[in-house]
Fold this protein.
Amino acid sequence: MAMALREAKEGIGLDPSLVEVVSVLQPYATVIGITVVPVVGILFDKNAYCPAPNPAVVEVIFDVPLEMFLQDENRSRGGVDGREVSAPSFRLSNSR
């Protein structure tokens, strides 16, 4: 968890004291062999957070309601560059 909070601080300027970590999800390997461990946290005071994306690693910051992740129609599995990927993906409206 400490690494995830540190990465969030470095990547998007998120102060770890503003986040309550609620779950660590199942790790998965990316198509390039890196293991990702998703960490879920709740930001209770959105007004206290001033987004500061690091342009070297972050293109855009967005938020979505938690319910979006729970709706089956928003979940899928698919391929990347012709390879099957066994990681969850989520469809967002107005996304690229």
Q: What stands out?
A: The first strand starts at residue 19 and ends at 24. The chain has one domain: 2-90.
